[in-house]
Amino acid sequence: MKRRTLLRTATALGATGLAAGVSPYGAAAAPPPREDADTLRVHVVLFDGVEELDLAAPYEVLSASDHFTDRTVDVRYVALDGPRTVTAAFGTTLRADHAWAPEQADLLVVPGGGYARREDPGVWAEIQRGALPRALARAPRPGLTISGLCTGVMLLAAGGLTRGRPCTTHHRAEADLVRQGGVVKNARVVDDGDLVTAGGVTSGLDLALWLVRRELGVDAALGLEGMLEYEARGTVWTSRPGRA
């Protein structure tokens, strides 16, 4: 386990780090992440109208996981249209400094937001535009796990990724997910191997903790729970025997 002071700068730098796409737990002069086989590469997808909590919870949990493993964890914001500024659902301005490159990721995290507000930017607008669902449809490959939470799962559904597969989403979008061929499970997190989905908003914490447990081990997940003062809640449905 890496021995670092975890909480010294978290409060002061947390909001700044999230807005800039930089982990709030890294030292100011920290070297850039290693790009080697031991690096867990996580891409969090941004788009206009994305829900702040949907993206912040997975981003912070996965970024902080670097402190509880000997592996390097590289978490970055990406946007389909390339590096740009994104305005989230409640007006937060975020910078995606990295281009769309799922071929370079091990985990792709798709948050939600704006599905019910169809006149505003967000998931519904992205579905109507079509570019992001098409890009997601082309993303699957061996070695990549695609995850979605809340109504971000509806972007995966629009790309055909949930058809015939166990999945979940925000409870108000479940009927739509079923109509598009998803096999909805009554669980907070649903792990179907290379597709992992989670329910509404706060389940992003549980999604990220489950991904940490799966990819980095139980001790890393337990360490994060202690640091965050949060215990993973809800049922995890998994098609992977022995992984629950």
Q: Could you walk me through the main structural features you see in this protein, from its secondary elements to its overall organization?
A:
- By secondary structure, the chain is an alpha/beta fold.
- Helices cover 32% and strands 20% of the residues.
- The chain is built from eight helices and twelve strands.
- The strands form three sheets. An eight-stranded mixed beta sheet has the order 5-2-1-6-7-11-10-12, with helices on both faces. The chain has a two-stranded antiparallel ribbon with strand order 3-4. A two-stranded parallel sheet has the order 8-9.
- Strand 1, helix 2 and strand 2 form a beta-alpha-beta unit.
- The longest helix is centred in the last third of the chain and has 14 residues.
- The radius of gyration is 17 Å and the shape is globular.
Helical coverage, percent range: 25-40%
Principal-axes shape call: globular
Could you give the count of β-strands? 12
The H/E string reads: HEHEEEEEHHEHEHEEEHHE
Residue runs with pLDDT of under 50 for 5 or more positions: 3-17, 22-34
Going by helix content, strand content and strand pairing, the class is: alpha/beta
Instruction: Assess the beta-strand content as a share of residues.
Output: 15-25%
Largest sheet: 8 strands, mixed
For the biggest β-sheet, the strand order reads 5-2-1-6-7-11-10-12
Rg, rounded, reads 17 Å
Alpha carbon gap, first and last residue: 24 Å
The number of helical runs is 8
List the quaternary state of the chains: single chain
Average the pLDDT over all residues and give the rounded result: 88
